[in-house]
Design a protein that fits this description.
Elements (H helix, E strand, L loop, with lengths): L7 H9 L3 H29 L3 H12 L12 H11 L8 H4 L6 H4 L3 H16 L18 H20 L15 H5 L13
Length: about 200
């Protein structure tokens, strides 16, 4: 014949020989003592770090990428449509024959029509910006913004990683591993240096 197992309170009460009321008082006392101990441990840890937690949070806030405000009056869709209209009939010509001041080897190797897509999706979208981040509208060839040269230098770095460095990384699953702007930038001007909090 099977006997029912006693409930938790009955079991504890029978072991300590006390009533349910005594059990409740002891439970509250243990809970409050545990909560107080946890609070004191956390306070001691924070104090023992000398504010390291606060400093790390501040450093992360500085390192966390934030988009730079774009020119409010600039309409990227309209600007690209206007450029497409201007190069109509020349879309398949080399980009450096249609546009001025093309210096990046990859950009020089593509046609003018593809250049606009690379700029819109490869650069602007990957960095979460619009054309005005690197260019002065209607003066696309101008060298008045340092971001344009930074983009060229980053493109050269990406080309070197893709053509020289990735092939030496053993055990990659891809026969032709590739990185691009999005690999690091993820829609932000500055690549994140830390993981986002959850």
């Amino acid at each position: 014949m099977m006997t029912a197992k006693p409930g938790r309170r009955a079991l504890i009460s029978s072991m300590s020989g006390s009533s349910e009321e005594g059990f409740m008082k002891r439970s509250k006392k243990v809970l409050l003592t545990g909560m107080t101990a946890a609070y004191l441990c956390a306070a001691a840890f924070v104090a023992g770090t000398g504010g390291l937690i606060e400093k790390r949070t501040s450093a992360q806030a500085i390192a966390t990428p934030t988009p730079v405000p774009t020119t409010a009056s600039f309409d990227q869709t309209a600007a690209i449509a206007k450029l497409k209209e201007q190069i109509k009939g020349r879309e398949n010509e080399p980009a450096d024959k249609v546009f001025k001041n093309i210096q990046t080897p990859f950009i020089r190797s593509i046609n003018a029509g593809r250049l606009l897509a690379v700029m819109e999706f490869g650069y602007a979208r990957s960095l979460g910006v619009n054309c005005t981040h690197c260019h002065t509208p209607e003066k696309w060839e101008a060298e008045d913004k340092p971001q344009k040269q930074i983009a060229r230098d980053m493109a050269a770095m990406m080309a070197r990683i893709n053509s020289e460095l990735l092939k030496d990384v053993k055990n990659l699953k891809s026969a032709m591993p590739t990185i691009n702007c999005t690999t690091c930038h993820r829609g932000e001007i500055k690549p994140a240096l830390n993981m986002p909090s959850r």
